[in-house]
Write a structure and sequence with these properties.
This protein has about 350 residues and is an alpha/beta fold. About 45% of the residues lie in helices and about 15% in strands. The strands form five sheets. The protein has a five-stranded parallel sheet, sandwiched between helices.
Length: about 350
């Protein structure tokens, strides 16, 4: 166990559970609210496809939204049903998971003995009984990874039945390649809302009209967005001497460390807090960040010990994808591709970097 005081433990816990809502998140929440409002009007429910890379903050976004609603007993109102695609993808397992997450008394072992029609009817009954206004289904990319087109069509038909009979809209959440399901007619006609949560970026990429050369420079607007997020995390660390993390000498190395990934950034700063407690420091500074990086990534060059002149940055260039024509399982999922690591000194020059 980590040897820290009870106050430090609570400080860590508060930071670990904090959530920073920036404009893109606020827009997504407004769509959630509009879907719920439209549901109250009684018309045909719409659906929403929300995608983002692993670590972009999808699950944290969902959990923060859920925190707005009180939860009670299994018989009380449940405004939001938050569920996920189970590891073994088939219609029966998905419906069973719905009933379990509805805290339904019929969600036990006996439910598995019922056929899919009875399960779907049971889900509709429970949704109505608990006055559910929105269904959020996470890990929707597993429908793409572990089911055939015919199976996805069957599940789409089931979701359509549940949505129409219960009058509840769906939010489907998953990796970027989950948009493969939107290419199928049954899904495409109902996914009237679509958004993507991106990694943070610092680089502005401009291509000439002939697409021959590419110009790289620092994007001031995106840098400000990242800096505000980092400053928000710093303010939630609970130190009397608040960490100064949004200045260039720390901000750029932080980006080099996390490559724009929200989860990696937040976890790293939590480890830095623990390091500060161990070393009896009153805050998190560049020295603590350097020590934390050395502890976590001893096999990598430490960006916090590197001068800004030598620091290199990269960011996501192409999102992850699903190769529908792949022969082997290993070739089906294509990982996101990053730009080349570009020296910060070149990015900050008046002409930027042209390649």
């Amino acid at each position: 166990m980590v040897d820290i005081t009870s106050r430090q433990y609570e400080q860590l816990k508060a930071y670990d559970n904090c959530f920073i809502e920036y404009p893109e998140i606020t827009e997504i929440y407004s769509i959630f609210d509009q879907l719920r409002f439209n549901q109250s009007l009684g018309g045909e429910p719409e659906s929403f496809l929300l995608t983002g890379e692993s670590g972009s903050g999808k699950t944290a976004l969902i959990n923060n939204y859920l925190s707005r609603f009180k939860t009670g007993s299994s018989w009380s109102k449940q405004t939001i049903l938050s569920t996920r695609i189970p590891s073994r993808v088939n219609e029966q397992n998905i419906l069973t998971q719905f009933l379990v997450d509805l805290d339904s008394k019929s969600g036990g072992r006996s439910v598995r003995k019922r056929n899919e029609i009875a399960l779907a009817e049971g889900v509709v009954t429970q949704l109505k009984r608990k006055s559910v206004e929105l269904i959020i289904v996470n890990e929707i990319q597993e429908l793409v990874e572990f089911s055939t087109a015919i199976e996805r069509q069957t599940i789409a038909n089931t979701f359509k039945y549940i949505s129409e009979e219960a009058g509840v809209p769906f939010v489907l959440v998953g990796m970027p390649y989950a948009d493969v399901i939107a290419q199928e007619s049954q899904w495409n006609s109902r996914l009237s809302w679509r958004r993507e949560i991106n990694y943070f970026k610092l680089l502005q990429v401009e291509r000439d009209s002939q697409n021959v050369s590419t110009q790289y420079s620092i994007d001031a607007r995106q840098k400000e967005h990242f800096a505000k997020f980092v400053a928000g995390l710093a303010s939630r660390m609970g130190y009397e001497n608040k960490p100064v993390l949004a200045k260039n000498e720390v901000l750029y190395p932080l980006f080099a460390m996390c490559h724009g990934e929200c989860r990696r950034l937040k976890h790293f700063l939590k480890d830095a807090m623990i390091m500060s407690f161990k070393e009896n420091k009153s805050t998190v500074d560049k020295e603590i960040l350097a020590s934390t990086f050395t502890l976590k990534f001893p096999y990598l060059e430490n960006p916090f010990e590197c001068s800004l002149d030598r620091l290199k940055l990269d960011q996501v260039a192409t999102r992850s994808a699903y190769n529908t024509r792949a022969i082997t399982e290993e070739d089906k999922i294509l990982a996101p591709r990053f730009t080349d690591a570009i020296p910060l000194s070149m990015l900050l020059s008046k002409s930027g970097l042209k390649v």
